[in-house]
Specification:
It comes from Marinobacter halodurans. The protein contains four helices and five strands. It is an alpha+beta fold. It has a five-stranded antiparallel β-sheet.
Length: about 140
Amino acid sequence: MFVLHEKLAEDTLPLASSELSELRLMNDSHYPWLLLVPKRVGVREIYELAPPDQQRLLRESSAVGEALMTVFDGHKLNVAALGNMVPQLHLHHVVRFEGDPAWPGPIWGVVPPTPYSEAGLRDMQKKLVPVISAYRSVS
């Protein structure tokens, strides 16, 4: 049975779910930052997914990434599956802007995360409606 890694549960907020994955918001208001977490037990790497799941993950990731860039008009979309701290497979989707706190380098460890305020979270959830719709539309 799938169980979300405790660190992902602690650091993210649920947005939506598909047959394959969970879409989650990183609770860091510095960046528009979503994660896709495949709901497959014991999977650490994309190549460990069955080929249909690999294809679906790519479609979900592409839909989420395109919608994020459309909504936030970012300079660059960073997509990464690092897993050094959390072994459970998860894909980060981070919209980057020239002048953001870590630009042009990687975001990890540059500034401490700033959790969303209640109002900030409500605003972000409204902005993410088209992203969630794009994610859900993947067949």
